[in-house]
Amino acid sequence: MIRFTMVDAIGMRTTRSTNEAEADFILDRLLELVELPSPPTVGVITPFREQQTLLSKKLFNHARARDFEDKLRLKVMTVDSCQGEERQQIFYSMVATRGQDALNYIFPVSLDGAVDAVEDKLKVQRLNVGFSRAQESIWIVHSMPLDEFRGGIGHALRYYRKLPRQAHNAKVELSSYCWRTSAGVRSPRESWGRSSLYSSIHHHAASRTSSRRRNRYWSSTSSRNVRLNRSM
């Protein structure tokens, strides 16, 4: 299942690529999880290497660091280093604040042409990989309203925000901090791969690219016809 929490980063140390408020929030959740009789395996993902470093220092220098590793199999990753890694519970630290937002350097600014541009293909892949590492639950930790996220990442976050609402008739149970389902609610992996934001991104980009090509074709054809008529 998918959960969102907006933290208050005002007065905390933040940069374009680090957010201490989000790191503190995740640490507090890990301290709760590690006390469960059967805690889930946990991964933390962030778009920025600097936030990965901050999280790693905060979590692995903590007095409970050994428990984090042994009981939770904790791993802190970026969207570029999490390929092949899976955990039952994923925390996703978005980092961006209203005053400092560099996410469009990591993810596609626009979905238009994302299929054609090599650089944008990599950025779209980051969306796919980052959101498909959770086996049971993904917890998005953010520091500004979801409606204020721009570009491809904003599209992805708002897409996922709708999923719990669409499943409101299903019997959903929250067991501590791990969402589990007994009827009809897809896991984050299934939601991404089957409902498929990833596919919708490619469909959207491909259709816009195809439309532009058709427009260029008809524009070119019209210009040739005008020149032909004038020559006659």
From TrEMBL:
A GO molecular-function annotation: ATP binding
Pfam families assigned: AAA_12
SUPFAM superfamilies found in the cross-reference section: P-loop containing nucleoside triphosphate hydrolases
The DNA2/NAM7 helicase-like C-terminal domain, residue ranges: 15-141
Keywords: ATP-binding, Helicase, Hydrolase, Nucleotide-binding
Top-level taxon in the UniProt lineage: Bacteria
Entry annotated with the keyword Nucleotide-binding: yes
Protein name from the UniProt record: DNA2/NAM7 helicase-like C-terminal domain-containing protein
Species of the source: Arenimonas caeni
UniProt lineage: Bacteria, Pseudomonadati, Pseudomonadota, Gammaproteobacteria, Lysobacterales
